[in-house]
Amino acid sequence: MKDSEGNDLMVSDNSWRCAGVEESGWEKPDFIEGDNWKPPLDQGDRHSLIIHPRSPWKQINSADSRSIWSSGGGNDQTAYCRKILI
């Protein structure tokens, strides 16, 4: 996420928490994370999710951004990731 001047405000990195299973209300600010919410698996800054020519994530061009996924890695077909903003 960038501000109106193009400065990074937030990037995906290891400060997020991820799960491989959807829980009701996970996207809401008052959601309480259970034991299955863990630090993400860092897949690097050159992961195919980022560099694939047709990837929508290719538009994210922050040098600090990381490709993250749930700690189940390839076993999880979907990752649900959250960042708590203070």
Topology:
Blueprint: E1 17-19, E2 41-42, H1 48-51, E3 68-69, E4 80-82
Antiparallel strand pairs: 1-4, 2-3
Instruction: Going across the biggest sheet, name each strand in turn.
Output: 1-4
**Number of distinct beta strands:** 4
Low-confidence stretches: none
Sheet having the most strands:
2 strands, antiparallel
Question: Approximately how much beta-strand content do the residues carry?
Answer: 5-15%
Number of helices, counting only DSSP H or I runs of 4 residues or more: 1
Gap between N and C termini:
16 Å
* Rg of Cα set: 14 Å
Mean pLDDT: 78
Structural features, described:
It is a single chain. The chain has 86 residues and is low in regular secondary structure. It has one helix and four strands. A two-stranded antiparallel sheet has the order 1-4. The longest helix is centred in the middle third of the chain and has 4 residues, at 48-51. The radius of gyration is 14 Å and the shape is globular. The chain starts with 16 loop residues before the first strand and ends with a strand.
Provide the descriptors you would attach to this structure in a database record.
86 residues; little secondary structure; two-stranded antiparallel ribbon; two-stranded antiparallel sheet; 1 helix
Offer a concise description of the structure.
The protein is mostly loops. The chain has one helix at residues 48-51, and strands at 17-19, 41-42, 68-69, 80-82.
